[in-house]
Amino acid sequence: MVDSIRSLRTRRALLAGFLVLVAISLAAWLAISLAAGTGQTKGASYHFRWYITYDSIFAPDGSIISGLWLTISVSVIAQVLGVGLGILAALAKMARIWPFRIVSNLYIWFFRGTPLILQLSFLFYGIQTTRVFTWPLIDFGPIVIAPEVVAGVVILGVNEGAYMAEIVRAGILAIDPGQTEAAKSLGMTYSQTMRRIVLPQAARVIIPPLGNEFNNMLKNTSLLSALSIFELYYTFSSKANTTLIYFEYMIACCFWYLLLTTIWGFVQAWIERRFSKGTTTSSAGPGWRERLLGGRRRQQAEEIAILGGH
Q1: Is 284 part of a structural domain of the chain?
Q2: Residue numbers of the domain that contains 63
């Protein structure tokens, strides 16, 4: 029994050591390659301009800061819109009135079944060329939102709503039907039951995939470059196209996206811990170390299984 546990720990330690060795080897190879690129030796095929990457990360200009804030703003607004639409679509899909179910199914079918880049092009360029609808310019005094930004936020939110609908529906179905029956026996209406009983409990199931969806939303904003919106990716892409210096700018762009998604990973872990308090899974949720380094909790579970098997 003890030997089995030790063997399990040894295998995991060896695997972790191997992965660390691979990571160090890759880092060393990249450092050597970059050093070779910056050297003036004969045969060097590329001169790495390290100061461009450094300045883009540690001293970003106004366009990079603007693109960063636009990416964050669009992601937050589109995700809130998507969650709202997802709740409505999930309730409509579970409704007894068949027209609601048909509309919800068609909505989910279309936006989950077509590429997001196609939806952006079709609903912005395609609709405007037919003159059936024109995206408005929103003016709030000092704040002016261009029509393409309005379209991008709405389309991203509507697309997200189709995915959130299935997530919300799964969360609602995970709640014991006895909860709904108990609410009915107390005289609650359907809307009261959903608002006060079902959805608050379903939130514990919905939060983890919702966090993953927002992570994807942060990255999907890069597709707004198809609408010529200067979000984070399009800002760096424009700089690279203008100067023909792609490698250095794309490294900096990767850094900013990784920074955003990593920060959100910490926030998501904190939110999940808050929502899991008072439940049987409150002490079993993975922390940020488990998210980054993997399976400590799984190791404990396997050790318990080994002990139970003997």
Answers
A1: no
A2: 2-11+47-275
Contact 79, 217 (CB under 8 A): yes
DSSP three-state, residue 282: coil
The confidence score (pLDDT) of residue 212 equals: 92
Look at residue 291 and tell me if it is in a domain. no
Does residue 194 belong to any structural domain of this protein? Answer: yes
Low-confidence ranges of the chain (pLDDT < 70): 1-44, 277-310
189: left (phi over 0), alpha (psi -120 to 50) or beta: beta
**Is residue 82 within 8 Å of 160, Cβ to Cβ?**
yes
Query: What per-residue confidence (pLDDT) applies to 50?
Result: 87
For residue 129, what is the domain's CATH number? 1.10.3720.10
Dihedral, CA atoms, 167, 117, 80, 64, nearest 10 degrees? 130
Whether residue 172 lies inside any domain: the answer is yes
| DSSP string across 191-218 | HHHIIIIIHHHHHHHHHHHHHHHHHHHH
Say how many domains are in the chain: 1
φ, ψ at 116 (rounded to 5°): -65, -40
Quickly list H helices, the chain: 2-38, 50-58, 62-93, 98-113, 116-121, 127-130, 147-173, 177-185, 190-193, 199-220, 232-243, 246-275, 288-293, 296-309
